[in-house]
Write a structure and sequence with these properties.
Length: 357
């Protein structure tokens, strides 16, 4: 039997994995702790009944894009939707990076930025952040000017650190990116949990896009829907690579239905932000080093080896993300903010584990 070899440039890669362990309290993948309200599910069910299933969906997803754009006082020509913001990122890379071109990330950051760069044939270049995970702006500007990347990524709030990029920092990086005819992508998957957004920097003649997702804030990770906000000329170019009818009719309906419940979503976000403060204070009290977060998760370094603490949590049926073996993240764990009850169980377990010392 013969087996065709995969592309030479893919052979050295490993896929992206997030272990799924069966536990009672899952705080490892930054999902929303609760589903959207039941009225949302009913609205989606009603919309499903009205879908002409024998027809292709609206290829331009115009109604959905118009409704999303309205949230930001924009028109639909500034919005592009895809199957999760990961597909938005992949589409951007297929259009603006690819073979012979480089991308730039500031590590540690979201692993998919470099991973998607590789699988689209682009060459990712990584520049380190400072030890406290803040961006050294001068080093970043030097990197942009010398590497001249086609696509530069910032992630704000940054995953896995939770840090929010100051607006002046984004402005400076954007200016350098524009000098080298590059594109700046600000990944705001957690933007709604943060005090400010790069959306305010969007201008038609500026090479900036901001990517967002329904997966976290909207409690709709199961729907796989994400979008970007950017200049109309850029959104138009994405049509070059996107598959025809890539956004199915039910997803478009679900995305629209969600926008009828903005108030309930905002209330949940406020609740998560409040819980986040409580967890941060409690972990600090327990002797952990905790990074300030503008997100729905917290990165912390417990005062005991992270692998031991992670296992002791699993033994108590609580799963957090073990980031200890990730580059730059020695001894660190990442916990997603859960329901008040889940957070209580997590903190009680942490107190128990750390008292055992
Ligand atoms: C979770 C996450 C995403 C979301 O991806 P989807 O494909 O929309 O689920 C994007 N960027 C970052 C930084 C994330 O953490």
């Amino acid at each position: 039997m013969s087996r065709p070899p995969v592309r030479d440039d893919l052979a050295a890669l490993t896929g992206y994995h997030s272990p799924q362990v069966d536990v009672a309290v899952r705080l490892n993948t930054n999902e929303a702790p609760e589903p959207p309200p039941p009225e949302f599910s009913r609205a989606v069910a009603a919309a499903a009944m009205a879908i002409p299933w024998h027809r292709y969906p609206d290829r331009a997803a115009l109604e959905l894009r118009t409704a999303i754009a309205k949230l930001y006082d924009l028109g639909p020509e500034h919005v592009f939707c895809a199957n999760g913001s990961n597909e938005v990122l992949q589409t951007l890379l297929l259009t603006f990076a690819g073979p012979g071109r480089t991308t730039l990330t500031f590590e540690p950051t979201y692993a998919l930025h470099s991973h998607l760069s590789r699988i689209t044939g682009s060459e990712p270049v990584a520049v380190d952040r400072r030890d406290d995970f803040s961006l050294d702006v001068d080093a970043a500007l030097d990197a942009v000017r010398s590497i001249r990347p086609s696509v530069t990524f910032l992630c704000s709030p940054n995953n896995p650190t939770g840090l929010v990029e100051p607006v002046p920092t984004i402005r400076s990086v954007l200016a350098a990116v524009a000098e080298v005819d590059g594109l700046l992508v600000v990944d705001e998957a957690y933007g709604e949990f943060a005090p400010h957004s790069a959306v305010e920097l969007l201008v038609e003649e500026t090479p900036l896009v901001v990517t967002k997702t329904y997966s976290k804030t909207w409690a709709m990770a199961g729907a796989r829907l994400g979008y970007l906000l950017g200049p109309a000329w850029l959104v138009e170019q994405l049509e070059l690579v996107v598959l025809p009818y890539h956004l199915d009719a039910l997803k478009q309906a679900a995305g629209l239905a969600a926008l009828r419940f903005v108030d309930s979503m905002s209330a949940r976000v406020a609740g998560i932000v409040e819980e986040r403060g409580r967890i941060q204070a409690a972990l600090t009290e327990l002797g952990a080093e905790v990074w300030p977060s503008g997100s729905n998760f917290l990165l912390f370094r417990p005062p005991r080896p992270a692998d031991e603490v992670w296992q002791a949590l699993v033994d108590r049926s609580i799963l957090v993300r073990n980031t200890a073996s990730w580059q730059h993240l020695d001894g660190c764990l990442r916990v997603t903010v859960g329901t008040a009850e889940e957070n209580r169980r997590f903190l009680a377990a942490m107190a128990d584990i750390l008292e055992d010392r």
